[in-house]
Design a protein that fits this description.
Layout lengths: L1 H28 L1 H64 L6 H28 L7 H21 L3 E10 L5 E11 L5 E2 L1 H10 L3 H20 L6 E5 L2 H4 L4 H10 L8 E6 H5 L3 H12 L3 E5 L8 H6 L2 E7 H9 L18 H7 L3 E5 L4 H9 L4 E3 L7 E2 L2 H6 L4 H16 L1
Parallel strand pairs: 2-4, 4-5, 5-6, 6-7, 7-8, 8-9
Antiparallel strand pairs: 1-2, 1-9, 1-10, 2-3
Helix pairs in contact: 1-2, 3-4, 3-16, 6-16, 12-14
């Protein structure tokens, strides 16, 4: 269109120049002055056109620059607003007034009295069965008993930290969930990783006590997050021991029955091996949670060839798969089918397949931008890993506000004591 307009203008200028030349020639000045008039008039008109076009182009450029600057300003404002919201969210999680200090102090004192019998039982058992450290088996037993005492003391003295790691949307990287982790601390405040104490805790019946504190604190953290953004939820790990515990589960179910508003923000997570090892009792208890509206997530997936129908029937709504595993079994196949049971499914079909069963796919353990490019190619909608944020410890002030009910702690510790006796 611009070329057509330019052509019309040129011919218009030519017509005006010819008119001026004809006027000079008819005035009796001759053909020479007429031709000179044509060229002069044409030159003046083209020059004026160039000047005017330059002015208009500069104005248009200034307008475009102004629009770009305005867009940058809006983007900067949006980024500042987002950063401010994230800061407020972090402050809401990590800080807060201790309005319940006196009540919490009373609960802690009551808890100390309630667990004293359990502590005496451990001390009595260690004293009544002296073990020599001269043999390998003896040294192992001494270490096991010492670790057991450390774990028990961490529970009774509230040396338990809650860590949160963000789960983000892709490619926007907006936080929509957090995954929660529990860490115990020894008397010197050294953080103990789960691999150090889980085997001893499970063998001595203390695993439900650890799960209990994590689950109750997750519920309270969800409430704190809801004040800022009701769409943010928390993945909370739960063990088969807790799902099958006759003392813990009924009271926890009763607690959730009274707090059904948490159902959209609290997701219970199990490993794939744990999920597949569940028995009839654990499956029934999972169904009871599902009847209240709570959902489940599966992580630590070892193969993509899953029973999606079984996951759907069990009210599993999220699947977390390591980014490396997704890339290895979907992109690095050299044309092979990713699922042995469904040979017609191609790599690009995997994420849509999970959605057909009501399952949202999350790529976990994302460590590099290259992995992000690959998982976006697979149409994965969410990611988790150190690239998006490492697990962060919640401050003690906030943890104090999320202490579980004393009656619940009493039942848990009594249950652990009963299992120890039998």
């Amino acid at each position: 269109m611009r070329k057509i307009t330019g052509g019309f203008l040129f011919f218009g200028y030519l017509f005006i120049a010819l008119t001026i030349g004809a006027a000079i020639w008819r005035a009796g000045l001759g053909a020479g002055p007429g031709a000179a008039g044509v060229l002069g008039a044409l030159g003046v008109l083209v020059g004026l056109h160039a000047v005017i076009a330059g002015v208009l182009d500069r104005r248009a450029l200034r307008k475009e620059i102004a629009k770009v600057r305005e867009a940058h300003r809006l983007l900067a404002d949006a980024m500042e607003s987002t950063q401010g919201a994230l800061t407020e969210l972090a402050e809401a999680i990590e800080s807060g007034a201790l309005s319940r200090t006196e009540a919490l102090t009373g609960e802690v004192r009551m808890l100390e009295g309630l667990v004293q019998q359990m502590s005496d039982s451990i001390d009595e058992r260690l004293a009544s069965s002296p073990i020599t450290a001269d043999t390998y088996e003896g040294r192992r037993q001494v270490q096991s008993n010492t670790l057991l005492k450390t774990v028990h003391d961490a529970l009774t003295e509230n040396r338990i930290d809650l860590y949160l790691q963000p789960v983000v949307t892709l490619p926007q990287r907006r936080t929509v969930f957090y995954e929660s982790f529990t860490r115990l601390r020894d008397p010197s405040n050294r953080v103990m990783m789960p691999a150090e104490y889980l085997s001893v805790a499970e063998g001595e019946g203390l695993l439900p006590a650890i799960d209990n504190l994590l689950l109750f604190r997750c519920a309270q953290i969800v409430r704190r997050l809801a004040r800022q953004d009701r769409k943010v939820g928390v993945f909370c790990n739960i063990s088969l021991a807790s799902l099958g515990d006759e003392t813990f589960f009924p009271q926890f179910l009763d607690f959730l029955s009274q707090n059904r508003d948490l159902k959209d923000a609290l997701i219970f997570e199990l490993g794939q091996a744990t999920f597949e090892a569940r028995g009839a009792s654990e499956a029934r208890n999972m169904a009871k949670l599902a009847d209240l509206g709570f959902r489940f997530s599966i992580d630590k997936v070892q193969t993509l060839d899953l029973d999606f129908a079984d996951l759907q029937r069990s009210d599993v709504r999220f699947i977390k798969i390591a980014a490396d595993l997704l890339i290895e079994q979907l992109l690095d196949l050299d044309g092979a089918a990713p699922l042995a049971t469904q040979p017609d499914i191609q790599a690009a079909d995997f994420a849509p397949l999970t959605r057909r069963y009501g399952l949202e796919l999350i790529a976990e353990k994302v460590e590099s931008e290259k992995q992000v490019v690959d998982i976006l190619e697979l149409d994965v909608g969410m990611g988790q890993g150190h690239l998006f944020g490492e697990p962060r410890a919640i401050k003690e002030a906030v943890l104090a506000e999320t202490d579980p009910p004393t009656e619940f702690v009493r039942s848990t510790l009594k249950s652990a004591e009963q299992r120890r006796r039998f």
